[in-house]
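Course assignment 3, question 2. Fill in each field.
Student: A.L.
Task: Predict the tertiary structure for the chain below.
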Amino acid sequence: MDDQGNSRAASGGVTRREVMASVMPGVASGVVLAACVPGGNSSAEPPGLGKEPVTIRWSTWGDQNNPFNTQAVPRGLQLFTQKFPNVKVEPEVQLEPDWPQKLRTEWIAGTGVDLTGHCCQHSIAFSREGFLLNMDPYLKRDAKAVPTEDYVEWLMKLFNSKENGQFALPMYTGTIALMFNRRRFQEKGVPLPDDTWDWAKYRDMGLRIADPDAKRWARADVGPNSMYRRFHQIGANAVDPKDDRVAAFTSAKAIEALEWERNQIHRDRTVVQTLGPKAPPETGPDSQTHFVQINSGYISMWEGGAFTLARYVAMLSDEVDWDAVPLPKGPAGRFTLATNDGWSISKATKAKDATWEFLKFLQSDEWTDLATRHASQQSARKSHQQRWLTAVKESSPKLANKNLKAFTEGIEKGYARPIEFWRKDVEAKRIFNEAYNKSVRDGDEEVGIAFRAAAEQINQINKV
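Answer field:
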């Protein structure tokens, strides 16, 4: 998932996360539904797994054609079953775009899955709505089996709340790097991107390499869900760090970041829209357009995620000689976005202990290696970054000569950050995205006007 999704890379098409950010029908973000859900969060010591046969349902990331489900899942289940022959795990793929609501409906009816994967706002929303189990008692009992101290700190904090305890554990966290087509730079006689680039050089090199009249752009626009990394790079936020009811994107720095992105689309004409009424046909909404853009040379650079690597190997032409470097530094330093993909146990499950044992397996070295090799999933464990590099390159020879440290150093050096969440996040993000689209992407409204109006709406729905 670009920072956002498994249906396209960061710079083109509609991502899983962008679609799902607006799909929460029938349930308001932040509404607590715990009373509707069977079961409860107990702080008592869990009893442990018995020997009776048990079946658990597992809602998995990706669709039925994803290598995660076609390769990693069956091999992982074979390993797990060898250790727990009395536990049968039934995987269920998360079909777009309605799987979150499907989970809610079944949980409320008492027929829901036992374990689910999630990304983006869904972990927070499911927890606030009262659907997820507090895993603190299990973590206390099995502290040696779950390497909580090795996970990136911000992810564990994101998956924890005062009200619900530790409601999720990491699936993975994928960081974003700047990927580029070497040949486009060589044809233009422009130096290749490197880790000395900052915002000024990023823009200047875009001006040198773009030829919009010939349908050749420096890169594609990043979209509203990727502006978080721009805010962090300039020292700003979308959400007030001290109060998640408050929109913070009207600060001078945040507006500067938004205008920096807009100007490259509409003034410099080096960045091309990928969606909306003004997007050229070459960048249209087809989910595969991103690869067409790269393979056909329409764009020379794209901000892509580690989680896209398996797809790049499969879908990029052999004629595209690409590589990666860390995202250019902003005025506040180097920051990148990292995904917040995780696993959670349903509070209503009737098989808590069996589901917990399976979740522990999903934190193991064995499973982490499978998810890396088949889906390029980047471990959320700090000590596993070099193992991820080795495994990804071994599983995909086409990646052997790529600078994949551009992805790991965000974790190793601590400059990766997650997206931000408002108290009523679904409604707030919809408002933010609309302001971005009409002012930054489409250029139909002045940035300051659009985002000040958006901030007022967000603060109002959060009742500030």
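Instructor remarks: The radius of gyration is 22 Å. The CA atoms of residues 145 and 360 lie 7 Å apart.
Grade: pending
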